[in-house]
């Protein structure tokens, strides 16, 4: 596989029609802090900006790597706002310039077909998503359902994640893409299933090496002291995979980097809203625009401008000699020190 810009050559005028353009994002956490008077709309604002960028850039579809929602059971207010945004940016007249060649009953078992092929609705911007650890499916009334299934029932997005991973096979001109989606599960269990060969990736039957294979996953990327089995090692990823979209990790490391364990590239888009006070969340939030032409790709990052600024710094209290732990008012004095730090 070669990482190179899919440029148009004068000798080949069919190339623009063979470029598949994908908007890549993850960990949008819609509904995070929704009852906060100041920050309650932050997650929705960035999500809407992201879809607006996709419309302006003319992407073929959106690919989300998990945790679209912050809560397993989003509130009605969150569902209403999410569906309103999707209705605005995803529905309407438009041309879908790629086709799905795989068995859609395996890719989309809920309704047996991708949403834009439903004759009762017009979809101009398809969204494919896996679930994360925040919005994973739970058992209700004898079925395993996630909040993403509600969006699927409304023809607003399509969920793609199974343990026996059947890829969505897309074709546009001469370019063929196979998308493998694996939703989140407990890291130790997934590690064991990979080690025992219980996670199966189904490759296209005809000319399997002619497909550009994308793997979308939502797991811990490395152990970081969690234990060797509390992450998904890159060595477990099948060797035929060309490109990995890694969700769950909130730090934005969106530039494609070559794996040290396999012959593929990895992008880690990071979250579109800060949900914890850690250093990685303080980095600029971005989304990715991935262009694929045949077996070449180009990844371009786009800075999100609606993200609430977040900076992080360390304060060493021992440097402030006037602070006495025995002072009954020490908490107030510490607050004053921090207030000065923030204001400066």
UniProtKB/TrEMBL annotation:
Pfam families: Metallophos, Mre11_DNA_bind. GO terms for molecular function: exonuclease activity; manganese ion binding; single-stranded DNA endodeoxyribonuclease activity. Residues 20-252 form the Calcineurin-like phosphoesterase domain. It is found in: Chromosome; Nucleus. Its main location: nucleus. Coiled coil: none annotated. Keywords: Chromosome, DNA damage, DNA repair, Endonuclease, Exonuclease, Hydrolase, Manganese, Meiosis, Nuclease, Nucleus. Gene3D superfamilies: 3.60.21.10. Its cofactor is Mn(2+). Transmembrane segments: none annotated. Residues 297-343 form the Mre11 DNA-binding domain. InterPro entries: Calcineurin-like_PHP, Metallo-depent_PP-like, Mre11_DNA-bd, Mre11_N. One of its GO terms (biological process) is double-strand break repair via nonhomologous end joining. One of its GO terms (cellular component) is Mre11 complex. Belongs to the MRE11/RAD32 family. PANTHER family: DOUBLE-STRAND BREAK REPAIR PROTEIN MRE11. This is Calcineurin-like phosphoesterase domain-containing protein.
């Amino acid at each position: 596989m070669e990482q190179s810009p899919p440029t148009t050559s004068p000798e080949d005028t069919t190339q623009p029609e063979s470029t598949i353009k994908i908007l890549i994002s993850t960990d949008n956490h819609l509904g995070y802090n929704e009852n906060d008077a100041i920050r309650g709309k932050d997650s929705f604002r960035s999500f809407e900006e992201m879809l607006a960028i996709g419309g302006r850039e003319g992407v073929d579809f959106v690919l989300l790597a998990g945790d679209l929602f912050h809560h397993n059971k989003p509130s009605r207010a969150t569902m209403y706002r999410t569906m309103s945004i999707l209705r605005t940016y995803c529905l309407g007249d438009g041309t879908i310039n790629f086709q799905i060649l795989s068995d859609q009953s395996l890719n989309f078992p809920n309704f047996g077909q991708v949403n834009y092929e439903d004759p009762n609705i017009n979809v101009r911007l398809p969204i494919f998503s896996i679930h994360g650890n925040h919005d994973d499916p739970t058992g209700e009334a004898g079925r395993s359902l996630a909040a993403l299934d509600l969006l699927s029932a409304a023809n607003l997005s399509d969920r793609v994640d199974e343990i026996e991973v059947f890829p969505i096979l897309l074709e546009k001109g001469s370019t063929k893409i196979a998308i493998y989606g694996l939703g989140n599960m407990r890291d130790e269990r997934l590690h064991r299933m990979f080690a025992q060969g219980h996670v199966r990736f189904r490759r296209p039957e005809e000319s399997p090496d002619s497909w550009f294979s994308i793997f979308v996953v939502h797991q811990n990327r490395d152990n970081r002291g969690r234990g060797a089995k509390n992450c998904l090692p890159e060595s477990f990823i099948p060797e035929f995979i060309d490109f990995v979209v890694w969700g769950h990790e909130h730090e934005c490391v969106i530039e494609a980097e070559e794996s040290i364990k396999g012959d593929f590239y990895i992008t880690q888009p990071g979250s579109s809203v800060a949900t914890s006070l850690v250093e990685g969340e303080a980095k600029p939030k971005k989304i990715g625009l991935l262009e694929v032409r045949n077996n070449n790709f180009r990844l371009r990052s786009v800075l999100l401008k609606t993200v609430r600024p977040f900076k992080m710094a360390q304060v060493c209290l021992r440097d402030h000699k006037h602070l006495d732990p025995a002072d009954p008012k020490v908490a107030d004095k510490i607050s004053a020190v921090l207030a000065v730090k923030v204001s400066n």
